[in-house]
User: Fold these one by one.
Assistant:
Number 1:
Amino acid sequence: MPAKSTLDVRDDVSQLEAGLDALDTPIVTTDRSPFARVIRAVWPPIVALLILLVVWQIAYMLQLKPPDVMPGPADVWTSLSNSFTDGTAPTAIANSLKRAAVGFVVSMVIGTVLGLLLAKYDFFRRSFGPLITGLQILPSVAWVPAAIIWFGLGNAAMLFVVIMGATPSIANGIKSGVDQIPQLYPKVGRMMGATGLAQIRYVVLPAALPGYLAGLRQGWAFAWRSLMAAELITYSATLGLGLGQLLETNRTLSDMPGVLATIIAILFVGILVELCLFAPLEKRVLRQRGLLGDKL
Amino acid sequence: MSSSLAVAVTDRKSVAVADVASSTRDASVQLTRVTKRFDGNPEIPAVLQDVTAQFSEGEFVCLLGASGCGKSTLLSLIAGLDTPTSGSIETPGGRTALMFQESALFPWLTAGRNIELALRLSKVPKAEWDAEIERLLKLVRLDGHRDKRVHELSGGMRQRVALARALAQRARILLMDEPFAALDAITRDVLHEELHRIWREEQLTIVFVTHNVREAVRLGERVLLMSSRPGMFVRQWEVDVSGERRIESPEVATLAAEITEDLRREIRRHAR
């Protein structure tokens, strides 16, 4: 039997390799169409919503409580659509969103710096770490009285409360994001010549992104909650009307459908920001890294 | 015409090892009395003790040894990720790149972008990136996989991208820390072939750490045996690489058996 020429052997290897590559490559399932995906994601919450509405309507019709204390879905709907047509709701939503967004962005800057310090410097972590986690637990509404005394009844006070509410979550988010980076990545980064800022930009930040996004998401939730609490208490005629103030106005007028309509508006703004901003962002990042599995 | 593996053996304690043909080849890595301790306590044996060695330009060296012999530490030192307690390390052969058992590719980047990042950090002019990425992917036979994410690649493919990335760092000295240990046997065989091809084509110096004796004999021009606690070179074998060498060849098996016997003796020394 003649010995194989080197060329044959090389051919063998490249074919074997191509075969292995084809067999070993993980099979990536093709996504459903975007439309089908949206339908699949949307219909279960709609079912839940319908069930709640039916239960509510039944309770209303049974007259368990007087109608002025417990209005039916139809009354609340009317109130909600009225407040949209007369412009109060859009104004309040815009004002609140603006305050929350400004507070969130400031929190993001402060929280990111704090988080990186926590992740990088052991002494800082051991000294200030527990304090920052403590602040995360502290209901930020507790800052409202102090904020009013310091900053007066105004936007500054509300901004302060929002920042105190959102910053700790964001700081802890990026800290745990950095903590979870596999040790090899910074090593490889240094090997490639990434030191100092280049290391942070090209290795640390992208590697910590999933944890960071989770922190931002939680930070947004805290910002929105803190703002509502602050707006509810910080009430003044000179201040732009926010959703919290609208809620308080409706309470003083004993306008129960108005109160419920405002609560629903607050809930939906929160959900909308989550659905339109954070959920897609997080999903995209996780999907890119193959961390999402077959979930939607 | 069985090509027997000619073997030159040095057999002394703590030998200063050098390529037999070193007179004709320039040094790529020069270790001079390198000692590494991780704590100041002189009672505890050093991780590496007085290691002196020379690896030549374009040489393929395999380091063998039991756990704790400081193989990985030695690679980190050569890579410049760590500094020796005493002694000196020079790499006149050029830049080094370190590869691990895991590919350590960045999962937030595609295969192509991983290579691109190495080019960017190595200050390669932007205009050359595209062609260079294509060339490197072709070299590791992964052209057409440029836009794949890391999780879409198999283990063997990931290591090939990691190899391409190492070359993108303009590395002339490749330090490999058990890079194929987590792969199945057939994939490993193929990667042995490919690594040899790329080593020849790119004329790299390769320092390859493994605990697999056959792998060391299959790949290396020179196999160095290290002792543990303190880590030092105790023996070396020159392997004739002119002929066709497969992991299942009888010559490989014979030499591997001999080296394994030495390795076992080395490990038994630590029994109490």
Note: Chain A has a mean pLDDT of 86.
Number 2:
Amino acid sequence: MTTKAANTTENGLCRNCGADIPARARRCDSCSSPRTIFHPELRTLSIAHLDCDAFYASVEKRDDPSLRDKPVIVGGGRRGVVSAACYIARIKGVHSAMPMFKALKLCPDATVIRPDMDKYVRVGRQIRELMREVSPLVEPLSVDEAFLDLSGTERLHRASPAVALIRLTNRIEREIGVTASVGLSYNKFLAKLASDLDKPRGFAIIGEAEALEFLDSQPVSRIWGVGKALRRKLTSDGLHTIGQLRSVDEKRLITRYGSMGNRLARFSRGEDSRKVTPHSLPKNVSNETTFFEDIADPAELSRRLWPLCEKVSGRMKARDLSGRTVTLKLKTSKFQTLTRSQALPDPTQLAETLFRTAEVLVTRAIDGAPKGSAFRLIGVGLSNLSDGQEADPPDLADPDAAHRKRIEQVMDEVRGKLGSDAISKGRGLKPGTRNANS
Amino acid sequence: MKLTIERATLLKALAHVQSVVERRNTIPILANVLLDGQEGALTLTATDMDLAITETVPAEIGQAGATTAPAHTLYDIVRKLPDGAQVEIETDASAAQLLIRAGRSKFNLATLPVEDFPTMSGGDLPNTFSLEAEELRTLVDRTRFAVSTEETRYYLNGIYLHAAEDEGINMLRAVATDGHRLARVQLSMPSGGEGMPGVIVPRKAIGELRKLIDETTDPVEISMSDTRIRMTFDDAVLTSKLIDGTFPDYERVIPTGNDKVLSVDRGTFAQAVDRVSTISSEKSRAIKLAVGNGLLTLSATSAENGSATEELEVSFAHDLIEIGFNSRYLLDITAQIESDGAEFVFADASSPTIVRDGGDMSALYVLMPMRV
């Protein structure tokens, strides 16, 4: 129905060279490749989801060819779970998010590699650049997957979206050295489902004609936004498949499941009006903590601020984001909330820059509180977000900025290898406490 | 006080001093200009407590005396008087009103006592030297575009004037930066300036100073301490507080290893940048330079507008380099380059680039590339 083996009554495409193939042909005339795809809507669908196959593991295999035919698990480090497993390891039943000890029990001969996020982000960026050459409408979902809207690009590529996508995945294989799978459909929801159907190195299509038939048997958890809790609720209401969901009246779904009900109804009918938006960045990234005992001392507040800055910065780095506005929040013991914000000259993702800016705001916020206030909560956040590539450019007015950035990168590398407690800055500590403990 | 003055003379003097006065003032006396008529001359003074300009112009004094009146109102009145008018200005007996008469027009303005007008004491200004107006103009024009408006880094909100040594010669240097670009201009240290402190002259003072330079050809006398600067023109004196901060150690950000020299014709280059940047997005103003094989290709793309390219023949003897810049910064710098040729000295696509003014080594610009 959907994949390469499907409808062979239509003209198809060669997934190796992108050439047209007559109906029912088993191989491509031009390059004799057997990798073909046939679908009646092949030339009209334009919303795609592209997902790299076992991305972290593939990157590691690319960088160390001796691992090519061996099971590779990327993971461990802080939480001791599998971040990615190559397809060889998956045969043994290893999958991501599985605890490492369990994975190694299933696949004892696996090579375990600690994740090198910096590297994956770098490779992910290169892939994203290639995607952007195909269409400006690229909406990244993570380092290695994105939605692409190729509507109206036929004249630019002198080819249909399907051909442009075939060329793109081939180019990713050739230039980056990892494989990717594509799902092509008429909206984001179905494109994402499709990309999962033919992995790895796949190309799957869900057309308008067969969308409902396909959805009928899919579990409700396939719907974006249906997590554990909602799935349990739906199951207890007797709704297991998307087909069952469609048979329920939309009004009933809304009464029962609130605003989510509307989405359930629409998705069950294969409708998804969400656009592919290139910059669907979060509005802000922040972190806060409530103290056991209220704090009035500014120095102590600064000490509590530092780990929060590190957390926010860590999340910014992991999601490849940068932010230009620093916001500090304090809550007094009488539950009065004070916030102070400061715009930076350039976007940052560094804990150091965040802390230096937020520390000044602590003083300003205290000035705004009633005299003698003690505080029960402190929070810090970054907003006005943009791409991580714009973070912390060299600053002609701050000769030490590059040095501070380098220090933080080195600290991040050490932590990536040895765990988050391996190295830290002195400011997170209370004077005298460290030695007493260690 | 009673005096008669030519409208044009008064207008010019008022134009200089009134721009010091902030439009919105919480302290009423700061909205006023001090008028002091003595011995054939009228002296006008305005201040915002950080900056003061005093200008003396010839006037026919009937009765010596002084008062203060709202600067902007007075300026608007004089501006609207007919060309060539003789303006009579006098205070009434109680000195509470200022009477202005020209032809058949008559105005009464409320005054405030002279004693309330703040004086900006020059204090002791131990370092004094003088510069040709043209030299001062060069220092200011070639650096002021790079002055930052960022409030948190207030020490960047002015031009850093200081003594420096270049190849054994004492120099007077002006430097400004906003973090993205830096301008450094120098000339031989005038006599008397050797022991000067490094001072940051605030942006507002620079703006007013620039207007005064345009109207003089005589040398300007500059005196300073480490908190104040005074510039004396033929009939005007500008006194300003200095920015109390430390200018960054800019020498460390000026690259020394850049070796890929691109020479362009300044005019042709600036026009091409201007044309291609029409397409650049309003936010980033980014433009890409690709240089190699004797050809410079300028290009810009934006999701909203489309794309543009333009090619220039250039001399460049290195491997292809692709580098992006903010087009406005490129135009700001090329506008200050006085010779026909501009030189870009690159290291790579992500490192600061040096821009030189043809053979003129007195000016040096540093420009941060941007991602394109």
Note: The domain at 284-428 of chain A is CATH 3.30.1490.100 (Dna Ligase; domain 1).
